[in-house]
Amino acid sequence: MLDQTTFAQRLTTLEQTVLDLQRKVNNQPNSENWLETLIGSISDESAFSEALDYGRRFRQIDQPIIDPKCE
User: Fold this and answer.
1) Cα–Cα distances in Å, from 60 out to 48, 55, 57?
2) Positive or negative, the Cα torsion across 23, 26, 27, 28?
3) Rounded CA gap, 44 and 40, in Å?
4) What is the pTM of this model?
5) What backbone phi and psi angles, to 5 degrees, belong to 32?
6) Alpha helices, DSSP H, located in the chain
7) Cα separation, 68 vs 41, whole angstroms
8) Would you say 10 and 2 are in contact if contact means Cβ atoms under 8 Å apart?
9) pLDDT digit string (tens) for 2-27?
10) Which candidate among 6, 15, 34, 40 keeps its CA 20 to 30 Å from the CA of 49?
């Protein structure tokens, strides 16, 4: 179990983090079109590129195999 001092320190840190996040959200410019803010926001992330590659491979694997003998 946490002692009282450790608990108080963790709670203070948590409260400060929440305040910092609220300030960041409040300082964000409001866009009329939410899609404008989303487009390109994660395109430089390596995980995003990996997900695109995975989806592309999955779609290619899912394609029917065409047997030239049947044509």
Assistant:
1) 19, 9, 5
2) positive
3) 8
4) 0.40
5) -65, -40
6) 4-27, 34-38, 46-61
7) 44
8) yes
9) 789 999 999 999 999 999 999 998 88
10) 34
